[in-house]
Specification:
347 residues, alpha+beta, Beta Polymerase, domain 2, five-stranded mixed beta sheet
Length: 347
């Protein structure tokens, strides 16, 4: 039986009470992501994940964990309480601000989150803080662009290109006063850009990423490739790899069914970035930990994707880097324009 959003939130609260609160240094917990902005009686598909943050007194940065709890794909970030030191810090953080502008609190034994929520809810739409969040998003995009510029191989370049596209999509959402998202980031960016008459920019983003010319069947053909690679990565993974915390069998629907959802909605080109992320994360783990005779097939599949996306030769990489630089400048300018004209933003 499918649960609704309200039931899922209560299960998340239960997990925090039973398990999360026992993590050493626990100071509180709150929801992150789409649950905060969904009606309580709306259905919650089992392939969606439940994101939350655990505040820790002695946390080490932002450490992410995935687990299964009573049918939920639950992902929690262990976050140092310094990230919540003041409302000003939270209001400037694109990851936190929108989630604390609403009542996302699951546990607050020290009253930290209630106090922050009160201020953040009032100040969130003010221009000063929107600009601060945009600056933070721009900084992340510049870092991703720099990593892309140093790419030494097609796979490394494609991974960094994907991160840049996620960053730029997030910036567009922030400028439109929308909460950023991960899996559906390109869909949300499209919706914001359509609102502001900037559909050409969305096409430009898809073109630079490489998914613009893909048909629905061409994207769908990569779903079983992603699924097979994911299964093998889960089977062999022993060594830590980037985003390896996603490599658990219960997370597979998050990639496969989550991508199907977008494809069925007509967003197949936007879904490719998510399918590609699953393939690249999985292939990375396979190349590190699988038997030598198992690696060639998965590497060949990854390179087929690179070929289809036209990012295979050194010349391809250099050309895409130049396109990405121009795209970044364009997105920055459009984001500034949206902020300057957005009537929902308060002075």
């Amino acid at each position: 039986m499918q649960m609704n959003v309200g039931q899922v939130i209560e299960l998340a609260r239960e997990w925090v009470e039973i398990y999360g609160s026992k993590i050493p240094g626990f100071c509180g917990a709150h929801l992150m992501g789409g649950l905060n902005f969904s009606p309580k009686d709306s259905p919650f598909p089992s392939y969606r994940d439940v994101d939350l943050n655990i505040l820790l007194r002695d946390g080490d940065g932002w450490d992410v964990h995935d687990l299964s709890y009573k049918g939920l794909i639950l992902e929690y970030g262990s976050v140092n309480i310094e990230a919540y030191k003041s409302a000003e810090i939270v209001l400037s953080d694109p990851r936190l601000a929108s989630n604390l502008a609403v009542n996302s609190i699951l546990s607050d034994p020290m009253g930290i989150l209630a106090s922050l929520h009160k201020t953040v809810a009032l100040e969130y739409p003010h221009r000063k803080w929107v600009l601060a969040r945009c600056d933070s998003a721009k900084s992340a995009a510049k870092d991703s662009l720099n990593e892309l510029s140093q790419s030494s191989s097609p796979i490394y370049g494609f991974s960094n290109l994907g991160l840049l596209i996620f960053d730029l999509s997030g910036l567009i959402a922030i400028a439109g006063l929308k909460p950023p998202t991960n899996r559906r980031s390109l869909v949300l960016a499209k919706e914001v850009l359509e609102t502001w008459g900037q559909t050409d920019l969305h096409e430009e983003i898809l073109k630079v990423y490489g998914s613009a010319p893909f048909s629905k069947p061409e994207v769908e053909a990569y779903l079983p490739i992603c699924a097979i690679a994911f299964d093998k990565a889960v089977e062999v993974k022993q060594t830590a790899v980037p985003y390896g915390y996603k490599l658990h069998s219960h997370v597979k629907p998050y990639f496969i069914d989550g991508a199907k959802e977008m494809i069925d909605e007509g967003h197949h080109r936007e879904a490719l970035i998510w399918i590609a992320a699953g393939i690249l994360i999985s292939t990375n783990a396979i190349l590190v930990d699988a038997q030598e005779d198992e690696k060639p097939m998965f590497l060949a599949n990854a390179y087929q994707l690179l070929s289809d996306i036209q990012l295979i030769t050194p010349e391809d990489i250099e050309s895409r880097i130049q396109q990405a630089r121009a795209l970044t400048d364009h997105v920055f300018k459009i984001a500034d324009t949206i902020v300057s004209q957005n009537s929902e933003i308060m002075e």
